[in-house]
Amino acid sequence: MKTKVRTITELNKENVYEEAAMTLTNGGLVAFPTETVYGIGANALAPEVVKKIYVAKGRPSDNPLIVHIGHSEDVVKYVKKVPDKARLLMQAFWPGPLTMIFEKNASVPDLITGGLNTVAIRVPSHPVAIGIIRASGLPIAAPSANLSGKPSPTSAKHVIEDLKGRVELIIDGGDATIGLESTVLDMTQAVPMILRPGGVTKAMIEGVIGEVTFDPYLLNIGAKEVPRAPGMKYRHYAPKGQVKLYRGKGTAVIDHINQEIKAAVKEGLKAGVIASTEDVSRYNCEIVLDIGGKNKPDQVAANLFKSLREMDDLEVDVIFTRAFSEESIGTATMNRLLKAAGNRQIEIEDNKVLE
Ligand code: TXA
Ligand code: MG
Fold first, then answer.
1. Does residue 143 line the site of ligand 1, with CB under 6 A?
2. Which residue from 6, 168, 243, 313 has the fewest beta carbons nearer than 10 Å?
3. Whose CA is nearest to atom 12 of ligand 1?
């Protein structure tokens, strides 16, 4: 398949939205930017088109898709009821990086929901995403626009690497600003449950509707818990290189990582470090990528997937990193990083490995 790439400008944007909308209406796949990550969109109401998403991504078909809508009110077309708490959250956070799970009605094809009786819905805030969805007049199923298992794409370059030849159209609208996927919140439970942490944090949600919980799986990754969001169980966000994640205090943990780098290089491996700005100069390694300031969780989140992909471009075999702050979106950053590290983190205290 020949893939067209269109770069959005102030002058051409209306035409590009129209072209994307036509492609979607005609049963094609269109990759486009959202404020979280790039998505690969298809008409959510046409099962034979939705099937193509699973093929293009190499995604297991039991993993349900998020339906993206252009206007909050449209939610009633696809769900049995909108709980009061969901209404409050819609007012507070839509459009934006919050996906809510509702009981689905009969208009939503089973293929979208992986056979579940619930459906995930969000209104993205990125002007290009909104422009395309509204121009199409359709609900758009859109998973992240990466090949299944790879880090989600935060730029059109990443999408082109993964999906060239697999989709009809890629829209380049610049870098995704948040850089991590939306928060997934299950509204079908009396106390809503966060199934995937993201840009809308637990504290932000609780500020509007009171108590919510985390899926127990998120608090105890690596244990036998099964995640409520089917997609969370897959190996994800993983670069080709092995990610080694360390947790511990300043000098001890950095000394330890420097020893490990030395040992890896001695073995003939190519080593790389993902570091906060403040730590960059403390590592003895040829490749050190600056992910952003220690007290700037938004920067770290926005650069995580990009850094992991850059390590692949540099053909790094072992990627070393310290845990980052879990303030605000940091919870989501650490969730993704832990998964990239195969759910394993190495605890360092007084230069001893605790684990
Ligand atoms: O930020 C985002 O949400 C991006 C952009 C493109 O909007 N999309 C995205 O989609 O991350 P995807 O398909 O990569 O992730 C959707 C997640 C998966 O973990 C999936 O299992 C979960 O949402 N999910 C979808 N429907 C669900 C449902 N009915 N019940 C439980 N989990 C669901
Ligand atoms: Mg994804």
1. yes
2. 313
3. 143
Q: What distance in Å separates the CA atoms of residue 142 and residue 88, rounded to the nearest whole number?
A: 24
Counting ligands in written order, the one closest to the CA of 154 is 1
Identify whether 209 is part of a domain: yes
Report the distance separating Cα 241 and Cα 245, nearest Å. 13
* Cα–Cα distance measured from residue 229 to residue 195, given in angstroms and rounded to the nearest whole number: 6
Spacing, Cα 255 to ligand 1 middle (Å): 39
| Closest CA relative to residue 41, chosen from 174, 131, 150, 151 | 131
- Reported as a single tens digit per residue, the pLDDT across 291-329 is 999 999 999 999 999 999 999 999 999 999 999 999 999
Instruction: Tell me what pLDDT residue 261 has.
Output: 98
CATH number at residue 306: 3.40.50.11030
CA-based nearest residue to 231, from 293, 343, 144: 144
Residue 224 lies in a domain: no
CA distance 105 to 78: 5
Could you tell me which of 288, 343, 280, 292 has the C-alpha nearest to residue 311?
288
pTM: 0.96
Domain, as residue range, for 101: 4-219
155 lines ligand 1 (CB under 6 A): no
Distance 236 CA to ligand 2 centre (A): 8
